[in-house]
Amino acid sequence: MTNKASSPIIIAIDGYSSSGKSSMAKRLAKTIGYRYIDSGAMYRAVTLYAMRHGMISNDGSVDVDKLTAALPDIHIDFAVENDTQYTMLNGENVEAEIRSMAVSNNVSPIAAIAQVRHALVAMQQSFGFEKGIVMDGRDIGTTVFPSAEMKIFVTASPQTRAQRRFLELTDKGHAITFEEVLANVVSRDHIDETRAESPLRRADDAIELDNSTMTIDEQNKWLLDRYHEITGA
Ligand code: DC
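Above: the input record for the complex with 2'-deoxycytidine-5'-monophosphate. Below: its predicted structure, written as tokens.
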């Protein structure tokens, strides 16, 4: 993982749900003037589309054939307004809706579908065509950009992550208990780690960060230091 000073690179930040990787990735992108792409938001947007079109039944099973047929009609992009990024699904701002518990509870089975992954990985690779990008997710350093110049794998205990997510959701007014959030975190970890297609795992050349006991400022500094180290910038 070396790079000539100042030429743009690809930064892949993978890790567990609610590990704080999105906030770190977003902040780094802003500091160094790179584009930020939240790949999890893309899986969430496909999940919302499937929910709205009756492709997920009450028992959580997905109509894979129907969803696969609909993939060419699902267009996902990101809009930026006043420094805030919004996920756009077929031209509609769905940023708030894709963060709901309903979407969180349905997203893992959707993200386990090979056809969905293939379509989204291709979209993600096209976002990185010109480099100068920070992308976060589960398989960015392993599958989407295996040659990324900088790879980070972020982890923290399930309790720490559930607590962060719980505060985030209750701050936004969602009525939810800590136990429900913890159960969702543990269940998503399990599905993410055991799915056949691109399971969550640390790339061999990724630098690991356990941020359980770090402040946000410490994490941001740690990440920026890695960037300077790798680029020599
Ligand atoms: O990071 P997040 O919690 O918003 O991600 C939502 C879901 O999408 C999560 O269950 C894992 C999945 N995901 C994935 O499988 N691959 C990615 N690159 C990003 C997210």
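Notes for the reader.
The beta strands are 10-15, 35-38, 76-81, 84-89, 92-93, 133-137, 150-155, 207-210.
The first helix runs from residue 21 to 32.
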